[in-house]
Amino acid sequence: MKSSIILSKFRIFIIPIMILFFISCKDQGTESNKINPSSAVIKIILDHKVGDQEFKMNEMIYKSKAGYPYDIKTLRYFLSEFAFYIDTSEALRIDTFHYVETADAYKDTKTLILSNIPAGKYSGMSFIHGLDETYNRPIGGMEPHSLPNEVKEYLDMYWPWQQDGQYHHMKYEGFYVIGKDTLSFKLHTGPTNGNDNFIKVTKLDFTPLDLMAGDTLSINLVMDMSKWIDNDIIYDFHKFGKGIMKNQEAQDILKANGKSVYTIEKAEIIKRK
């Protein structure tokens, strides 16, 4: 799946510190726009690891700091509200969202292509892990879903416990071993009890790169899945159990840990041939 950018809204606001460029775009599942040859492309490649280990699904090869061997069965999440930093005083803000799933059948979701990007010297990016209020509005009246309801994967992220319903930010699931028992865990994050629970990932820097018309800025964005549970706060699978959809204490731990689960492994310019 790919998100495309529509240059239908382009407004510049000058403030004391930063010039903000807003580009309105359609979300996944819509028609792609023709790439303007006088503009550039940003390509985000999403990857995953577990500490110093390779990310592998369905293998009981990981161990949490809380003391539990565990595996990973499912990882699904949304990213939204991307911003790319030009020089030190400007941010290109892209109003879109992207769905990621690590199962083999969804390999294409691990690449996000953003077209019609202006040239400039880029030095970093920020985004939201999850969906902000733009896309995660409560569902009311006759509107069946606040995201496009023809996309099955979005419906799988539905969060029914909220009044009128909203969507999960993430579903991270697996099994852990305690004593002789193998039990399931479900790190499901999303809005609950008036808390939105999305995570603002602040600027991730990379060496400034000159992006010219026709070029592609390729960014390898990596999630360290171990940091969700083994970061500043140790998350205990057994303490919280598998039902954390209304447990704000569990949500707060994942929000705190989640602020630093992402790193940029590599950023480079791919020249047009």
Written overview of the protein:
The protein has 273 residues and is mainly beta. The protein has one domain. The protein is 9% helix and 48% strand. It contains four helices and 17 strands. The strands form four sheets. Strands 1, 2, 7, 8, 10, 13, 14 and 15 form an eight-stranded mixed β-sheet that branches. Strands 3, 4, 9, 16 and 17 form a five-stranded mixed β-sheet that branches. The protein is globular and about 60 Å long. The two termini are 25 Å apart.
Which secondary structure elements does this structure contain, and how are they paired or packed?
Blueprint: E1 4-14, E2 19-26, E3 40-50, E4 53-54, E5 62-63, E6 69-70, E7 74-86, E8 90-101, E9 111-117, E10 120-129, H1 152-156, E11 158-159, E12 166-167, E13 170-178, E14 181-189, E15 199-211, E16 216-224, H2 227-230, H3 237-240, H4 248-258, E17 262-270
Parallel strand pairs: 2-8, 3-16
Antiparallel strand pairs: 1-2, 3-4, 3-9, 5-6, 7-8, 7-10, 7-13, 10-15, 11-12, 13-14, 16-17
